[in-house]
């Protein structure tokens, strides 16, 4: 069991007896590389329950990335965490803790115990300026979220606006495609307005005492903080948060019986999104979350973009996004961080979607460059596993055991699963 504490003052950090202590006080010497202050003022006037949720999500995020899993297993090597998080609504969070603990266990495969330190309510600010944005959309820089932002922009009336929220923890490699998406939308939909919140929030490499944190490379909780930041922004307009991902990936089918939920993280799994939103609403916070592509494959999603902006613009827009699962290509030299390998699952699904939508793909893939670049990509190739996955067909036992939210039936999930497999099979041949 590992105890983790998030502290908002040096005094509290010094008194903590947790195994790992993270300080977030907005000073240069705290535990985070970020311009975001603990009061979240850069995001606007955030309701206190949603500000609490940002702190909960941040603590989960740093715990997940700072405690190593044991190697060699297929069930994500379950860890045991006890978190202490400062919150304004301590009584309400204590009452809701068990529900959040079960939801986090589903997300990461670990055991979580949530404890809370009482935090004084924030001082009352000035008059709240109404947020007239029609929608808030999470933009990661990937093709799914970019498509979601485009579909949202296309739905706006002249003069209407939306807010985009992005999070990065690795610098320019992630932020550049996010900026490209925002810039492209301003050109494609010049009669509308958007405000882009780009939040860089990364744990520093060293503890407060100067020793180095351990680093866990798996990333099951990678988007929980992203989701919390998006809800913090969306709460101010009350018009909903979109977290866009193709429905095939969101239901998270396994590549094989020994690789449960290996296609993606579970952060957009429909039951998970519904459960997080429900728990926050019960707490008195804002939790309206929607995946606009829940019923679509990635190919369907690309075709929707074509319908809205035409094939030529759609191809250019989608080719400028980033879907690769690997971020270390820069070690090859002559290759910018964020380049696509062409062989990981993210790249294979991306390439299959371009083919399904009959769109030219201008993405530069290392696998297509030959020489050491192709060798690098082949070492990371998951194509054979995907072929076996397609040949195996729909896993009925998986469908009978996954939780689904109200309104999504097993028959719906099965049909989506089959269509996603067909797109992959058509691409791989």
Automatic annotation (TrEMBL):
It holds the Pfam family QueC. InterPro entries: QueC, Rossmann-like_a/b/a_fold. It is an enzyme of class 6 (ligase). It comes from the Bacteria. The keyword Transcription does not apply. This is 7-cyano-7-deazaguanine synthase. Transmembrane segments: none annotated. GO terms for molecular function: ligase activity. Its EC number is 6.3.4.20. The keyword Ligase applies. Keywords: Ligase.
